[in-house]
Write a structure and sequence with these properties.
Layout lengths: L2 H31 L5 E9 L10 E4 L5 E3 L5 E6 L4 E5 L6 E4 L7 E8 L18 H10 L39 H9 L1 H29 L10
Parallel strand pairs: 1-7
Antiparallel strand pairs: 1-4, 2-3, 2-5, 5-6
Helix pairs in contact: 3-4
Length: 230
């Protein structure tokens, strides 16, 4: 009589464990199939000292390095996970981190105020580093110049002697002929200048003949029969 209740208890325990296991698996499957919740973060980035908008400020998800830039009014919008950290940066301001911390909100509107960075640059002094002209000239004089290579010029050998005697006298210039200057000859024959030149030559020839005759007559006077010159 005692064996039957023990068997029933064991069977009920096994059925209970089976139900619990199936319910847990069903819950896990339901959670796995559900979409990951996200948070729509929006707002405005401004300066803390004067509350003026900071256009172009970067809004970045620190986990994925994905981000957006604020518009001209400093407004922004980005989608993140509830466990993400949003990083705000701008030139000349300290970075600001917004930790969502697993929020259950689906939309979050924030007003981010960045504090101006107080880091100052040290004094920069510019000094002239241009060397003096005398230093440059001294360095040029002390510079080792490459020695030019020695080029050996081969000596010229004696001129070869000719096998036969060579006449080095220049040929006589040929006398111009009428056929060689037909244009000049025609111009001399029929032009006015040519006719005048020929007249002058005739006059000169006549004067020369008369002078020779006078000279001959003067010479013949010293002879008795006046035929000594002839």
């Amino acid at each position: 009589m005692l064996a039957a209740p023990l068997f029933l208890k064991r069977r009920l325990l096994a059925i209970s464990l089976l139900l619990i296991t199936s319910l847990a698996a069903t819950r896990v499957q339901a959670q796995a199939g559900s979409p990951t919740p996200t948070v729509r973060v929006s707002g405005r980035v401004s300066a803390a000292e004067n509350k003026q908008a900071i256009p172009g400020a970067t809004v970045q998800i620190q986990r994925t390095r994905r981000g957006v830039a604020a518009d001209g009014a400093g407004d922004f919008f980005i989608v993140a996970l509830p466990t993400d950290t949003v990083l705000f940066r701008a030139v000349g301001y300290k970075p600001h981190r917004l930790v969502l911390g697993g929020t259950t909100l689906s939309q979050l509107v924030v007003q981010v105020k960045l504090v101006r960075d107080s880091i100052q640059l040290g004094e920069v002094r510019v000094t002239a580093d241009r060397p003096d002209r005398a230093i440059i000239n001294r360095a040029l004089r002390n510079m080792k110049r490459p020695t030019p290579p020695v080029v050996k010029i081969p000596k010229k050998g004696p001129k070869p002697k000719p096998l036969f005697a060579v006449d080095s006298t220049a040929p006589r210039p040929e006398a111009p002929t009428i056929s060689g200057s037909n244009v000049d000859w025609l111009y001399d024959q029929f032009s006015r200048q040519g006719k005048e030149r020929r007249k002058m030559e005739q006059v000169k020839a006549r004067d020369a003949a008369e002078a020779a005759a006078k000279k001959r007559a003067e010479y013949n006077k010293a002879f008795r029969d006046n035929r000594g010159y002839e």
